[in-house]
Amino acid sequence: SCKRDILHTEKRGWLDDTTIIEFAKYSAYIAHTFGDLVDLYITINEPEVITFNGYLNPETGFLPGIRDLNLALRVLKNLAIAHGIAYEQIKQWDKISVSEYGPATVGIARVLHEIAPHNPDNPDDVMVAEIWRYAWNEWFFNAIIQGDFDMNLDMLVDPDEKLPNLVKGCDYMGVNYYARFTVRNAKRGEIHPVLEVEHVPCKENCTDTGWEIYPSGIRELVNWAYRKYRRIIYVTENGMADESGERRPNYILSHLRELHKAITEDRVPVKGYFHWSLIDNYEWAMGFKMRFGLYKVDYETKQRIPTKAVKVYGEICKKNALP
Q1: Could you report the per-residue pLDDT of 71-83, keeping only the tens digit for each?
Q2: Which is the CATH superfamily of the domain at 49-57+102-319?
Q3: I need a labelling partner for 205 at 20 to 30 A (CA). Which of 28, 156, 254, 271 fits?
């Protein structure tokens, strides 16, 4: 099967270099076809989710469901190259400006996590938190913005891992932010510390997905991203799974207050915010179970039912101000 022997299957997804070429062709087609309608582009959404869940954490239910660090890094590299080539194609094929953005403002959407060690006094927990923060939050931006492809994940860039010719551009950084995650060292005797990362289940203040609500993380992470990479920022996703709809208004308000501090006090150039999500969605490996929508969907009748957050968020949007 694909899972047992992915390197010898005919179609290997992002492990296959030809996927980069096909993605480039697709990007050119999209830019050419929709250039008179679109100025703001995201090349790829959450490349780290595809990679680390599919190739490092099979328990998440992501395909192909294997655990191989070398293959994961190969996939991550191909996704980074694909972003660069897509960037070039979109710039080449969309010359029509329909807004203040110009013909084609092209970036990427990355989900950034606030990551904390389970025991801050335990050096082993601190170490895996640091390596996971680097692998999840940093690696991909380092590749597409700086040309640093750390292919052994040692947090150092060897001379042969510096590939500036693969840097094509990133006009803005899309930041998806949801939660803080706590990790500990599993001490399984793995060959690489990143394989020792074990997530500690959220115990309080958790969303329906089991993610810890941590509003100050959005401020901390847009600050980190801007200070390190110096690109404008769009918050391309922020929200929570909340079946009841009771807690979403406070989630929105608490996160937007922190984001407002980042803009006004920290001077981070956050140019926009997109809430996730307008309606309930098909959520990665979780299917329709998790409810992220401002509008709840009755999947039997297809009716869309407003939650309490609709009024709260609607007022913020109308006034462009927090209450």
Answers
A1: 999 999 999 999 9
A2: Glycosidases (3.20.20.80)
A3: 271
